[in-house]
């Protein structure tokens, strides 16, 4: 028995499990390694290569809109700044107050205080983006009709008295330096009955009009009534003669000889007189239709390409629109605004529109190939991780989770690379003159937002390309199903429908481009593409390359099958094995590389042909402007050259030959010597009597020049062959030949009277490349002294030629010092060089900027072609390495390994190179009728005519040859590297390659 207070002894029982202790916190450490960091550490080389590709693409994408903004802004500013002030200044004018108003009110409206108030209000009311340079602006009162100087001591070149424009220009003291005397002043009480005023003139006016301090001018109006007596009180020198203050009305700065509408034209002097601002009421007493004016000089430094369209609209509104009504509220109901700024901006917009439509073609090509190459890079990375991602999926990984991890992994690489690319693009094209394609106007001319959007698009594409290539194959689990050989693949129905759709788009775009051209649409629009139709036209080369890639991918298996059969009967196994390997390449890995290569090669060929066409057009335009390697002539070919000019030109270094030419632009044709002259009153006879350009040449030197330049060449016998009855043989342009016919025709000119018969017709000639002409032997002319020298040679120095011409003029002046001078004085001969004219075509920012973009497009196309080829070869590199290792264990030599890899890569390289040449050639031939490169080549398209796109052999052949050489080099390099690694490294148990 047991005691009650003693516990019973328990029997054998199962011990209770111990309570597990709660997990200890380890300071927040994660039990699993971060996915992104692990992946980046596992494959740092792949991440770095992908980041470099994204960086390159982001730089190009962000730099393109900035470069376009830079050269368009620079072009707008230079277009306005390079136009004379008379064509850009905004001039607000108002007539003098009518007689219906009291005289004190009429006088008060002409005084400086009233004019200044209007000037201040009008300047503040000018619409944006028009900005005014107040320092170069002016206001005052001027005579509407010039007054005639009646003093006999004034110079009269043709017997006509000079005329003077009187103006009360504001703030003359701040814009001129007094060289002699003082500035004019006006006494109290100046009004309509004032007959004597004071004036100042510039030193140039005083020199030509024989004026000095104290000179008194008696001026009369157009009716011969005495108007004013003007006393010269001072001579002034303009401080900035090229500024708008003095250039808006050049007569106030520099006098000029004006041609009168007489036959022959007579010359007389036109000059300006600067009155005191307080003397303006004196003009009320003259019958000169005096007018008040306010001139506003535009500021170009703050204008940007985005302002061009709005500037054109507001300028039109100033001339005839709501803004004109606002100006009339300030200056009076009869105020008028005149400016040539709208025409300048309109011309700039038209040229910009033409160039933009051609440039966007290159942008489409490079953008497409960049996107394809990024997709290839993503596919290559996804292919290398197929087993890893399949394992994740088999162990329960969701598609969304796997895609999110891949997206985060790509974003860590792509976002910093795209940001760095954007920063680099901003530094390269900063718009301040330091970067590529920058202009002088400062960084405000280049917008940042388009570059940010372009770089963001690249970053977005780089982030999603890996998930899009890797996740879709994981949707359905599938066992190993054998190879997807290229020769055995059959296109799906979806692919066929997609290809047919793209084919229709390509046909439509090519047809639209050939019919409308890249210049379709309104030239006055914003300069961007004119809608989806224009975008389709600009994408024509890409669509043609896309269709060609689809066709070649479908046809590619056929030659492989046909070539494999004879290769199987050869003694060696290398050729057959290489062709079999090429045919067993996966179908999915062939289309994308081929598409990238074709688009890249087509873009390079198209861009190279554009650059070649631009070069040819500029060379042609320069030749048509000069007519030789150098040209020495008198102004307008009006006077003969100095007697020693030809000898001096021949002594200049580099001169090979000199052709003297006599040019008379006012030769008068007479009636035919073999027809009735009784039809002189008919329209045909009136057309016949129009002047022709008669050119006298030395047949020997001139025909050598024409042959050398390939510009209207003809045999010397065409001029030297003896004619009948003293008739001189002549070479004529088509228009002149049609006018004069082939019958003998009498020609009267300053060089003498001759009878000519046209025996040869040529479209151009070096003496006057752009004009109609009649060419004869100078020996038949009475006065054959040349007015022009056409010089040929190498490395001609314009300074030496100008010095030689000037010395020849000085020598003649010293001999003829007693002869009377011409009305405007002896002038030095004008010298123009072919090289200088050619260089002038590249000075336009629009043309040079577009040319730079096409140059970059060609280089980028070649670079992306190389990248696409490398990615294509890297995609199958592990499999080829394993194949070489297995074959080496069977006795394959290193030389045979190189041959095997080279022959295996050859079919695809040949397909890409040959297809690229064929597609590039066909694309240019298809699109050439719709593309005119004239605006892209020169600023004035009329100077060269139409410039058709032509195929450039180097642009077709060099990239294709580079593809073949690179493919061979990569194959040889891989064979060499595989030989060094050894078979043990390549062959591992469980490797499925």
Briefly summarize what is shown.
The chain contains 32 helices and 21 strands. By secondary structure, it is of the alpha+beta class.
Molecular structure report:
Helices cover 50% and strands 15% of the residues. It has 993 residues and is α+β, with helices and mostly antiparallel strands. The strands form 3 sheets. Strands 3-4-10-6-8-7 form a 6-stranded mixed beta barrel. The protein has a 6-stranded mixed β-barrel with strand order 14-15-19-16-18-17. Strand 7 (216-220) and strand 8 (226-238) form a beta hairpin. Helix 16 (540-555) packs across helix 29.
Mean pLDDT: 83
Task: Strand order, main sheet: write it out.
Answer: 3-4-10-6-8-7
Number of strands: 21
Q: What's the tally of helices?
A: 32
Q: What is the helix fraction of residues, given as a range?
A: 40-55%
Give the end-to-end Cα distance, rounded to a whole number of Å.
Answer: 83 Å
Oligomer: single chain
Taking the sheet with the most strands, its summary is: 6 strands, mixed, barrel
Radius of gyration: 41 Å
Stretches where pLDDT is under 50 for at least 5 consecutive residues are 1-18, 25-29, 434-443, 520-533, 676-683, 817-826
Layout of strands and helices, then pairs:
Elements: H1 35-42, H2 44-82, E1 90-95, H3 103-110, H4 112-125, E2 132-142, E3 147-149, E4 163-167, H5 172-175, E5 176-181, E6 196-202, H6 203-209, E7 216-220, E8 226-238, H7 244-247, E9 256-260, E10 266-275, E11 291-298, H8 308-320, H9 322-331, E12 336-338, H10 341-384, H11 386-394, H12 399-428, H13 449-470, H14 493-516, H15 532-538, H16 540-555, H17 557-568, H18 574-583, H19 588-626, E13 630-633, H20 645-650, E14 655-672, H21 683-688, E15 692-697, H22 699-709, H23 717-720, E16 728-732, H24 734-740, E17 745-749, E18 752-761, E19 774-777, E20 788-793, H25 798-815, E21 830-833, H26 834-840, H27 845-875, H28 877-889, H29 894-927, H30 934-937, H31 953-981, H32 983-986
Parallel strand pairs: 4-10, 6-8, 15-19, 16-18
Antiparallel strand pairs: 1-11, 1-12, 2-11, 3-4, 3-7, 5-8, 6-10, 7-8, 9-10, 13-20, 13-21, 14-15, 14-17, 14-20, 16-19, 17-18
Helix pairs in contact: 1-12, 2-10, 2-12, 2-13, 2-27, 4-9, 8-9, 8-10, 10-13, 10-19, 10-27, 12-13, 14-15, 14-16, 16-19, 16-29, 17-18, 18-29, 19-26, 19-27, 19-29, 19-31, 27-31, 28-31, 29-31
